[in-house]
Amino acid sequence: MLLYGSLAGGLEEVPAELFWQECRRIAETYLGGGRERTRQVHALVDATIDALIERDQRFGYPPPFCRKGCCNCCREAVYCTDEEAADILDYCRENGLEIDYAKAARQLDYLECDAGLDHTGVTRWNDQEPEDQTCVFLDRADQSCRIWPVRPLVCRVHLAEGTDRYCAPHNGVENPHARAIDYPETSYILSVVFTIHRDSIRKTMGRLLLGAAPASPPQEK
Ligand code: SF4
Ligand code: SF4
């Protein structure tokens, strides 16, 4: 089982039976979701986060700092499932959005991959030209996400409190001052979905997009 977010930090305090019950509940819902399961799980994560933020505010905690144009977290390799990548491509086609495939290909040169083309986690991301360090979907004009409705799960759960100053990792290493907000509820969802898609998830979004790209992909002007 792949573990993410707060679950990756240690399971010692989680009773085994409760852990598996929760994983099974999420997996059965997801696997039974058919063709719409990606959009359904995105909606579930969004609703879960909204409810948790509302709960925290009732206890006097401020909402996350995250807002439109706040994009230090969009400067690293992004993971997504093969189905999320397919959904993103459909969205781009439907909305006439071009993808800078050449940039996506250049970015792969800065990720160490194994024989199966899975990213090993070792990265020289910040050795790239500054322009290449940003996600291919970050709008250059207003620094917003061009595919917001279909952005991957990892982007939905990435939240920080207080400031965006420490949100950019350096070559995959998180800033020690980072103030990420990790909700166990979303860590369960991420862990279950990524485990189900373990064959595609470590390809990274860039490789999945390139793999599904047209034979002569159009380039951004
Ligand atoms: S995670 Fe950090 S950089 Fe990303 S939107 Fe939230 S505050 Fe901004
Ligand atoms: S998909 Fe959108 S939110 Fe996610 S890293 Fe790219 S620009 Fe940022």
Write up this protein.
- With 221 residues, this protein is mainly alpha-helical.
- It has one domain (14-211).
- The chain has helices spanning 16-31, 37-58, 82-94, 101-108, 153-157, 184-196, 198-201, 204-211, and strands at residues 111-113, 119-123.
- It has a two-stranded antiparallel ribbon.
- Strand 1 (111-113) and strand 2 form a beta hairpin.
- Helix 4 (101-108) packs across helix 8 (204-211).
- It starts with 15 loop residues before the first helix and ends in a 10-residue tail after the last helix.
- Bound molecules: iron/sulfur cluster (2 copies).
- One iron/sulfur cluster binds next to loops.
Describe this structure in a few short sentences.
It contains 8 helices and 2 strands. It has 221 residues and is mostly helical.
As for the number of domains, it is 1
- Tell the overall outline: globular
Rounded to an integer, what's the Rg over CA atoms? 17 Å
> Helix- and strand-based class?
mainly alpha
Quote the distance from N terminus to C terminus.
42 Å
Bound molecules: iron/sulfur cluster
The poorly predicted ranges are none
Give the tally of β-strands: 2
Strand and helix order: HHHHEEHHHH
Report the sheet with the most strands, covering strand number, pairing sense and barrel closure.
2 strands, antiparallel
Estimated helix fraction: 40-55%
Question: How confident is the prediction overall: mean pLDDT?
Answer: 94
Beta fraction: under 5%
DSSP helical segment count: 8
Strand order of the largest sheet: 1-2
